[in-house]
Amino acid sequence: ITVILAFRIMKPGRTMRRFFVSGVYNAVIPICVLIQLILCGVWLGTSPPYIDTDAHSENAQVIILCNKGSVIVFYCVLAYLGSLALGSFTVAFLVRNLPDTFNEANFLTFSMLVFCSVWVTFILVYQSTKGKAMVAVEVFSILASSAGLLGCIFFPKCYIILLRPDMNS
Questions:
Q1: CA distance 39 to 30
Q2: At 53, which helix (H) or strand (E)?
Q3: Which runs of consecutive H residues, i.e. helices, occur in the chain?
Q4: SS3 call for 59
Q5: 12-54 pLDDT per residue, tens
Q6: Is pTM, for the whole model, over 0.85?
Q7: Residue 103: predicted pLDDT
Q8: How far from chain centre, in Å, is Cα 23?
Q9: In 3D, which of 109, 100, 111 has the Cα closest to residue 152?
Q10: Could you tell me the residue range of the domain that residue 105 belongs to?
Q11: From CA 164, how far away is CA 16, in angstroms rounded?
């Protein structure tokens, strides 16, 4: 956000310039964390998750699973996290064409695109999955999004540092 403000809003005559000078953008992260804490507090305070059993999905097996508690609040928390991911993708997309000193934004944009696409796919697959496969879908989504972020941000840097030191400027 700081980089976007520095390059796009600091032009003379812009009304948003006072936000950059006053440092209001520094409050974005604490406010987002506070919203997350309030949502999770409401969820855990009203109807927390609990251990449940499922004897109907698999033949001759009882599956122990975590019941979400309040489904509405669970999806509110998920929607909030999705909106944060979409906001991060938007910010990364807006800074992708900045001068070469800030060229890391290209890696961030693609990594956020991978992250968002994995979790959109997760939501669609998770809704149609039952039984033991639900846990596999959750684990695969966590691993795939983490690998996408790691692969798009960390591995290009390692490639340049280890194999192409002449490009490291």
A1: 14
A2: strand 50-54
A3: 2-4, 17-22, 28-46, 71-94, 104-127, 133-162
A4: coil
A5: 666 666 656 666 677 888 998 999 999 999 989 998 888 888 7
A6: no
A7: 61
A8: 24
A9: 111
A10: 2-167
A11: 41
User: Which pairs with CB-CB distance under 8 Å and at least 24 residues apart come from 84-87?
Assistant: 84/32, 85/112, 85/115, 85/116, 85/119, 86/116
What is the β-pairing status of strands 50-54 and 63-67? Answer: antiparallel
Side chain identity, residue 162: L
Dump the DSSP string for 98-135: S-GGGTHHHHHHHHHHHHHHHHHHHHHHHHT--TTHHH
Stated length of the chain: 169
Q: Which tens digit of pLDDT belongs to each residue from 73-96? A: 888 888 898 898 888 888 877 777
**Number of domains present in the structure of the chain:** 1
Q: Which residues, other chains included, contact 152 with Cβ-Cβ below 8 Å and sequence gap of 6+?
A: 107, 108, 110, 111, 114
- Residue 14 has which token pair? 């812009």
